[in-house]
Amino acid sequence: MSWWDDVDGDDTDEDEPYGQYGQYESKVRIRPNPKGNRPRTKVRPTHDDAPVGWVTNVDRGRFGVLVTEGAGSDAAGERVITATKARELGKKSVVTGDHVSLVGDVSGDPGSLARIVRVAERSTLLRRSADDTDEVERVIVANADQMLVVVAAADPEPRTRLIDRYLVAAFDAGLDPVLCITKTDLADPTDFLAHFACLDLRIVTSRSDDVPFDALHEVLDGKVTVTVGHSGVGKSTLVNAITGSTRATGVVNAVTGRGRHTSSSSIALRVRDGGWIIDTPGVRSFGLGHVEPANVFRAFAAHAVPVREPADGIPLDQAHDWEIVDRVQDGELGPTGVERLDSFRALLTGMGGEDPGTD
Question: Per the confidence metrics, is the pTM higher than 0.90?
């Protein structure tokens, strides 16, 4: 007979929680919470009703966030507040251009501080790495519409390979590239621009003493534009002219031919007639270690301008990678197409990817 069998046939322990041991339950001592507070719940708030803002700048762990009250674009209802990132976001980055949800003090009064508790899904994301072999990416700007690539016609001398890197980054991020040539009073940019004749790019030229406001507003109005460029090309000078800001500007070192960094952080500034422009720090290198190598040929083909109709009638952007190489080398984009293709292939092999043009 098992010890748990009911010997007398009367199951008296059925209705008691612990049977014959229930009498000791009330004598168990329950230790009080040593912290004297309620245990933390695992159910976190959703912040569905939290105010929404747009990050305009990032500075040492503090974020400037544009908050708009009411509907429409009434400037009177706008204010820029200071916020910090909530702990619950963990390692998720917050960058200029992000749409975020806020809690805390969103009044914008001096000394007030809000918390960013949620980052909305990003439509575009511009990134770069320290070099082509570095897999750690640095997020620069989120939710931009287009990239304004600023390059000087002289002082410092323009570099086609750096422009190629900017173009690949723009294509990978889903941004429309716009090429702006500054300091055209110092040198004629015609020969330099001929290198990119095979690509469908919007081009704006600017002199040191004459900013093309009409041409720039046609490109910038109603859009969020991120600027990139080598240090010393006049990027911040251009931004100051079209926004009325006072961003620091610098000069090019006469010995090294390199510009000095004057912008230390990304900041979004309102274009006078509408739209936003995000000024980024100047860089001397733009690593592409984060770019998917297959995207390089696909983006190149999508923005190519053929000089003749394809023999098989298939557009270049619908061809396979090895077909793109063969058709471009066969002259479908002209001599500049071969030049740009060789540059993109060099970038591809530099990132550790396989070159589809080799057997």
Answer: no
